[in-house]
Design goal:
Layout lengths: L1 H43 L6 H27 L14 H18 L1 H4 L6 H41 L4 H11 L4 H13 L4 H12 L2 H16 L3 H25 L1 H24 L1 H9 L1 H29 L1
Helix pairs in contact: 1-2, 3-5, 5-6, 5-10, 6-7, 7-8, 8-9, 9-10, 11-12, 11-13, 12-13
Protein backbone atom coordinates (compact mmCIF):
# COMPACT_ATOMS: atom_id res chain seq x y z
CA UNK A 1 0.00 0.00 0.00
CA UNK A 2 2.88 2.35 0.77
CA UNK A 3 4.35 1.81 -2.70
CA UNK A 4 0.99 2.54 -4.29
CA UNK A 5 0.63 5.69 -2.22
CA UNK A 6 4.12 6.76 -3.26
CA UNK A 7 3.30 6.26 -6.93
CA UNK A 8 0.04 8.18 -6.59
CA UNK A 9 1.84 11.05 -4.89
CA UNK A 10 4.43 11.03 -7.68
CA UNK A 11 1.72 11.24 -10.32
CA UNK A 12 0.01 14.03 -8.40
CA UNK A 13 3.27 16.00 -8.24
CA UNK A 14 3.87 15.48 -11.94
CA UNK A 15 0.34 16.57 -12.73
CA UNK A 16 0.60 19.73 -10.64
CA UNK A 17 3.98 20.51 -12.19
CA UNK A 18 2.58 20.05 -15.70
CA UNK A 19 -0.42 22.22 -14.82
CA UNK A 20 1.83 24.96 -13.54
CA UNK A 21 4.07 24.85 -16.58
CA UNK A 22 1.04 24.89 -18.87
CA UNK A 23 -0.35 27.92 -17.07
CA UNK A 24 2.96 29.74 -17.39
CA UNK A 25 3.14 28.84 -21.06
CA UNK A 26 -0.40 30.08 -21.71
CA UNK A 27 0.27 33.33 -19.86
CA UNK A 28 3.51 33.91 -21.78
CA UNK A 29 1.82 33.19 -25.11
CA UNK A 30 -1.00 35.56 -24.24
CA UNK A 31 1.47 38.31 -23.31
CA UNK A 32 3.42 37.74 -26.51
CA UNK A 33 0.25 37.93 -28.59
CA UNK A 34 -0.70 41.17 -26.85
CA UNK A 35 2.68 42.68 -27.63
CA UNK A 36 2.44 41.50 -31.23
CA UNK A 37 -1.04 43.00 -31.54
CA UNK A 38 0.24 46.33 -30.27
CA UNK A 39 3.18 46.33 -32.70
CA UNK A 40 0.96 45.48 -35.67
CA UNK A 41 -1.58 48.09 -34.67
CA UNK A 42 1.14 50.73 -34.35
CA UNK A 43 2.62 49.80 -37.72
CA UNK A 44 -0.67 49.77 -39.61
CA UNK A 45 -2.42 52.71 -37.97
CA UNK A 46 -0.97 55.46 -40.25
CA UNK A 47 -1.68 53.51 -43.43
CA UNK A 48 -4.83 51.52 -42.58
CA UNK A 49 -7.41 53.35 -40.50
CA UNK A 50 -9.55 50.23 -40.17
CA UNK A 51 -6.63 48.09 -39.11
CA UNK A 52 -7.83 47.71 -35.51
CA UNK A 53 -11.06 46.20 -36.80
CA UNK A 54 -9.18 43.66 -38.92
CA UNK A 55 -6.75 42.55 -36.21
CA UNK A 56 -9.24 40.71 -33.95
CA UNK A 57 -10.40 38.54 -36.85
CA UNK A 58 -6.77 37.76 -37.79
CA UNK A 59 -5.89 36.69 -34.26
CA UNK A 60 -9.13 34.74 -34.01
CA UNK A 61 -8.18 32.80 -37.12
CA UNK A 62 -4.71 32.19 -35.74
CA UNK A 63 -6.23 30.83 -32.52
CA UNK A 64 -8.51 28.54 -34.48
CA UNK A 65 -5.58 27.21 -36.48
CA UNK A 66 -3.63 26.54 -33.30
CA UNK A 67 -6.59 24.71 -31.81
CA UNK A 68 -6.94 22.63 -34.97
CA UNK A 69 -3.27 21.69 -34.85
CA UNK A 70 -3.64 20.75 -31.18
CA UNK A 71 -6.67 18.58 -31.95
CA UNK A 72 -4.85 16.86 -34.82
CA UNK A 73 -1.85 16.11 -32.62
CA UNK A 74 -4.04 14.76 -29.82
CA UNK A 75 -5.97 12.59 -32.30
CA UNK A 76 -2.75 11.40 -33.90
CA UNK A 77 -1.58 10.19 -30.49
CA UNK A 78 -4.24 7.45 -30.60
CA UNK A 79 -4.03 6.96 -34.39
CA UNK A 80 -7.36 8.65 -35.12
CA UNK A 81 -7.72 10.81 -38.25
CA UNK A 82 -10.44 13.48 -37.79
CA UNK A 83 -10.88 13.79 -41.57
CA UNK A 84 -11.85 10.10 -41.70
CA UNK A 85 -14.19 10.04 -38.71
CA UNK A 86 -17.19 9.00 -40.85
CA UNK A 87 -15.29 6.00 -42.25
CA UNK A 88 -14.51 4.26 -38.96
CA UNK A 89 -16.93 1.60 -37.68
CA UNK A 90 -16.75 2.89 -34.09
CA UNK A 91 -16.46 6.40 -32.64
CA UNK A 92 -13.13 7.34 -31.13
CA UNK A 93 -14.52 7.75 -27.61
CA UNK A 94 -15.88 4.17 -27.62
CA UNK A 95 -12.51 2.77 -28.71
CA UNK A 96 -10.67 4.88 -26.14
CA UNK A 97 -13.06 3.83 -23.35
CA UNK A 98 -12.73 0.14 -24.21
CA UNK A 99 -8.92 0.43 -24.35
CA UNK A 100 -8.81 2.16 -20.96
CA UNK A 101 -11.01 -0.56 -19.45
CA UNK A 102 -8.78 -3.32 -20.84
CA UNK A 103 -5.73 -1.50 -19.49
CA UNK A 104 -7.32 -1.35 -16.05
CA UNK A 105 -8.09 -5.08 -16.20
CA UNK A 106 -4.50 -5.84 -17.28
CA UNK A 107 -3.15 -3.65 -14.47
CA UNK A 108 -5.22 -5.61 -11.96
CA UNK A 109 -4.11 -8.95 -13.38
CA UNK A 110 -0.42 -8.03 -13.40
CA UNK A 111 -0.47 -6.20 -10.10
CA UNK A 112 1.10 -9.14 -8.32
CA UNK A 113 4.08 -9.12 -10.68
CA UNK A 114 4.66 -5.42 -11.26
CA UNK A 115 3.27 -3.98 -8.06
CA UNK A 116 2.29 -0.32 -8.00
CA UNK A 117 3.90 0.51 -11.40
CA UNK A 118 1.25 -1.72 -13.03
CA UNK A 119 -1.01 1.35 -13.02
CA UNK A 120 1.12 2.62 -15.92
CA UNK A 121 -0.53 -0.04 -18.08
CA UNK A 122 -3.72 2.05 -18.15
CA UNK A 123 -2.33 5.07 -20.08
CA UNK A 124 -0.17 2.72 -22.18
CA UNK A 125 -3.24 0.71 -23.20
CA UNK A 126 -5.20 3.93 -23.82
CA UNK A 127 -2.60 4.91 -26.45
CA UNK A 128 -1.42 1.59 -27.90
CA UNK A 129 -4.76 -0.22 -28.29
CA UNK A 130 -6.61 2.59 -30.15
CA UNK A 131 -3.59 3.05 -32.42
CA UNK A 132 -3.61 -0.67 -33.15
CA UNK A 133 -7.36 -0.67 -33.85
CA UNK A 134 -7.41 2.38 -36.12
CA UNK A 135 -4.21 1.26 -37.83
CA UNK A 136 -5.64 -2.21 -38.45
CA UNK A 137 -8.86 -0.78 -39.88
CA UNK A 138 -7.01 1.72 -42.08
CA UNK A 139 -4.70 -1.00 -43.40
CA UNK A 140 -7.59 -3.36 -44.18
CA UNK A 141 -9.55 -0.61 -45.91
CA UNK A 142 -6.50 0.47 -47.90
CA UNK A 143 -5.91 -3.10 -49.09
CA UNK A 144 -9.54 -3.36 -50.22
CA UNK A 145 -9.38 -0.04 -52.04
CA UNK A 146 -6.17 -1.07 -53.77
CA UNK A 147 -7.65 -4.38 -54.91
CA UNK A 148 -10.80 -2.71 -56.25
CA UNK A 149 -9.09 0.22 -57.96
CA UNK A 150 -8.14 -1.56 -61.25
CA UNK A 151 -11.80 -2.50 -61.79
CA UNK A 152 -12.90 1.07 -61.04
CA UNK A 153 -10.36 2.45 -63.53
CA UNK A 154 -11.47 -0.09 -66.14
CA UNK A 155 -15.08 1.06 -65.65
CA UNK A 156 -14.06 4.69 -66.14
CA UNK A 157 -12.11 3.79 -69.31
CA UNK A 158 -15.06 1.90 -70.81
CA UNK A 159 -17.46 4.72 -69.96
CA UNK A 160 -15.25 7.45 -71.41
CA UNK A 161 -14.59 5.50 -74.59
CA UNK A 162 -18.29 5.45 -75.49
CA UNK A 163 -18.42 9.24 -75.27
CA UNK A 164 -19.72 9.78 -71.73
CA UNK A 165 -18.13 12.72 -69.80
CA UNK A 166 -15.72 12.07 -66.97
CA UNK A 167 -18.16 13.29 -64.29
CA UNK A 168 -20.74 10.76 -65.45
CA UNK A 169 -18.10 8.02 -65.44
CA UNK A 170 -17.23 8.85 -61.83
CA UNK A 171 -20.92 8.73 -60.90
CA UNK A 172 -21.16 5.29 -62.55
CA UNK A 173 -18.30 4.04 -60.38
CA UNK A 174 -20.05 5.44 -57.29
CA UNK A 175 -23.26 3.60 -58.22
CA UNK A 176 -21.95 0.24 -59.42
CA UNK A 177 -18.67 -0.44 -57.59
CA UNK A 178 -18.34 -2.46 -54.41
CA UNK A 179 -17.67 -0.91 -51.03
CA UNK A 180 -15.57 0.93 -49.96
CA UNK A 181 -14.69 2.20 -53.47
CA UNK A 182 -18.31 3.21 -54.08
CA UNK A 183 -18.28 5.26 -50.88
CA UNK A 184 -15.09 7.09 -51.87
CA UNK A 185 -16.36 7.97 -55.33
CA UNK A 186 -19.74 8.96 -53.87
CA UNK A 187 -17.93 11.45 -51.64
CA UNK A 188 -16.09 12.69 -54.73
CA UNK A 189 -19.39 13.18 -56.57
CA UNK A 190 -20.88 15.05 -53.61
CA UNK A 191 -17.90 17.42 -53.51
CA UNK A 192 -18.31 18.19 -57.20
CA UNK A 193 -22.05 18.77 -56.79
CA UNK A 194 -21.48 21.49 -54.22
CA UNK A 195 -19.18 23.32 -56.63
CA UNK A 196 -15.71 22.00 -55.75
CA UNK A 197 -13.44 21.70 -58.83
CA UNK A 198 -12.55 18.18 -59.96
CA UNK A 199 -8.82 18.66 -59.28
CA UNK A 200 -9.44 19.84 -55.73
CA UNK A 201 -11.93 17.06 -55.03
CA UNK A 202 -9.49 14.45 -56.34
CA UNK A 203 -6.70 15.86 -54.19
CA UNK A 204 -8.96 15.68 -51.13
CA UNK A 205 -9.84 12.06 -51.90
CA UNK A 206 -6.16 11.14 -52.34
CA UNK A 207 -5.23 12.84 -49.08
CA UNK A 208 -8.06 11.11 -47.24
CA UNK A 209 -7.05 7.62 -48.41
CA UNK A 210 -3.27 8.17 -48.26
CA UNK A 211 -2.70 5.71 -51.11
CA UNK A 212 -0.06 6.44 -53.78
CA UNK A 213 -2.33 4.94 -56.43
CA UNK A 214 -5.07 7.46 -55.68
CA UNK A 215 -2.53 10.26 -55.92
CA UNK A 216 -1.46 8.92 -59.33
CA UNK A 217 -5.10 8.87 -60.39
CA UNK A 218 -5.66 12.44 -59.20
CA UNK A 219 -2.48 13.64 -60.94
CA UNK A 220 -3.42 11.93 -64.22
CA UNK A 221 -6.88 13.51 -64.31
CA UNK A 222 -5.54 16.94 -63.32
CA UNK A 223 -2.88 16.89 -66.04
CA UNK A 224 -5.38 15.65 -68.62
CA UNK A 225 -7.85 18.41 -67.79
CA UNK A 226 -5.09 21.04 -68.15
CA UNK A 227 -3.05 19.75 -71.07
CA UNK A 228 -5.29 17.21 -72.80
CA UNK A 229 -3.99 13.92 -74.16
CA UNK A 230 -5.06 10.29 -74.14
CA UNK A 231 -6.78 9.79 -70.81
CA UNK A 232 -7.93 6.24 -71.51
CA UNK A 233 -4.41 5.03 -72.33
CA UNK A 234 -3.07 6.63 -69.16
CA UNK A 235 -5.74 5.06 -66.97
CA UNK A 236 -5.25 1.67 -68.61
CA UNK A 237 -1.52 1.82 -67.90
CA UNK A 238 -2.21 2.83 -64.32
CA UNK A 239 -4.70 -0.03 -63.88
CA UNK A 240 -2.14 -2.50 -65.25
CA UNK A 241 0.54 -1.25 -62.86
CA UNK A 242 -1.86 -1.51 -59.90
CA UNK A 243 -2.82 -5.08 -60.86
CA UNK A 244 0.85 -6.04 -60.89
CA UNK A 245 1.39 -4.41 -57.49
CA UNK A 246 -1.61 -6.24 -56.03
CA UNK A 247 -0.38 -9.56 -57.47
CA UNK A 248 3.12 -8.97 -56.08
CA UNK A 249 1.73 -8.18 -52.63
CA UNK A 250 -0.48 -11.28 -52.71
CA UNK A 251 2.56 -13.38 -53.61
CA UNK A 252 4.47 -11.93 -50.66
CA UNK A 253 1.63 -12.79 -48.27
CA UNK A 254 1.49 -16.31 -49.72
CA UNK A 255 5.23 -16.78 -49.13
CA UNK A 256 4.83 -15.51 -45.56
CA UNK A 257 1.90 -17.85 -44.82
CA UNK A 258 4.20 -20.40 -43.19
CA UNK A 259 5.64 -17.81 -40.83
CA UNK A 260 2.18 -16.52 -39.90
CA UNK A 261 0.96 -20.06 -39.25
CA UNK A 262 3.95 -20.78 -37.05
CA UNK A 263 3.33 -17.60 -35.08
CA UNK A 264 -0.32 -18.51 -34.59
CA UNK A 265 0.55 -22.03 -33.38
CA UNK A 266 3.17 -20.71 -30.96
CA UNK A 267 0.65 -18.20 -29.61
CA UNK A 268 -2.15 -20.74 -29.19
CA UNK A 269 -0.02 -23.53 -27.71
CA UNK A 270 0.45 -22.00 -24.19
CA UNK A 271 -3.23 -21.09 -23.99
CA UNK A 272 -4.41 -24.56 -25.04
CA UNK A 273 -1.90 -26.20 -22.71
CA UNK A 274 -3.11 -24.08 -19.81
CA UNK A 275 -6.75 -24.94 -20.51
CA UNK A 276 -5.89 -28.64 -20.70
CA UNK A 277 -4.02 -28.54 -17.39
CA UNK A 278 -6.94 -26.65 -15.83
CA UNK A 279 -9.29 -29.55 -16.59
CA UNK A 280 -6.75 -32.23 -15.65
CA UNK A 281 -5.52 -30.75 -12.37
CA UNK A 282 -7.37 -27.64 -11.29
CA UNK A 283 -5.62 -27.41 -7.92
CA UNK A 284 -2.27 -27.27 -9.71
CA UNK A 285 -3.39 -24.38 -11.93
CA UNK A 286 -5.10 -22.49 -9.09
CA UNK A 287 -1.70 -21.63 -7.67
CA UNK A 288 -1.14 -19.27 -10.61
CA UNK A 289 -4.09 -17.16 -9.43
CA UNK A 290 -4.12 -17.56 -5.65
CA UNK A 291 -0.45 -17.80 -4.67
CA UNK A 292 1.67 -14.58 -4.85
CA UNK A 293 4.56 -16.41 -6.47
CA UNK A 294 2.18 -18.04 -8.92
CA UNK A 295 0.73 -14.65 -9.84
CA UNK A 296 4.21 -13.38 -10.63
CA UNK A 297 4.96 -16.42 -12.76
CA UNK A 298 1.66 -16.02 -14.60
CA UNK A 299 2.30 -12.33 -15.22
CA UNK A 300 5.81 -13.02 -16.51
CA UNK A 301 4.43 -15.70 -18.84
CA UNK A 302 1.80 -13.33 -20.25
CA UNK A 303 4.34 -10.56 -20.78
CA UNK A 304 6.81 -12.89 -22.50
CA UNK A 305 4.06 -14.27 -24.76
CA UNK A 306 2.90 -10.80 -25.77
CA UNK A 307 6.47 -9.65 -26.38
CA UNK A 308 7.21 -12.70 -28.51
CA UNK A 309 4.07 -12.16 -30.61
CA UNK A 310 5.00 -8.52 -31.19
CA UNK A 311 8.51 -9.50 -32.27
CA UNK A 312 7.22 -12.14 -34.70
CA UNK A 313 4.64 -9.76 -36.09
CA UNK A 314 7.29 -7.08 -36.61
CA UNK A 315 9.56 -9.52 -38.44
CA UNK A 316 6.73 -10.63 -40.75
CA UNK A 317 5.56 -7.10 -41.45
CA UNK A 318 9.09 -5.94 -42.22
CA UNK A 319 9.61 -8.81 -44.62
CA UNK A 320 6.41 -7.85 -46.48
CA UNK A 321 7.06 -4.10 -46.62
Amino acid sequence: MSRLLLVLLLFACLGLTGLGLSSLLIVSLHARNERRRERIAAATAPHLPAGREVLPSLFRRGGERRRERLVRRAAGLIGFAPTRRDLYPLPWWAVLGAATTLGRVAAGALGGLLGAPSILLVPAAAIILPRAFFGWYDARRSRTLLQQMPDALAMIVRTVRVGIPMQEAIQAVARESAQPTAQEFALLVNRMRIGMPLEEALGEMAGRNRLPEYRFFATALSLQSQTGGGLTETLESLADVIRKRVALRARGYALAAEARTSAGILAALPVLSGIGLWFLNRAYMDKLFTDPTGEKIFGAAVLSLVFGLLVMRGIIQRSLS
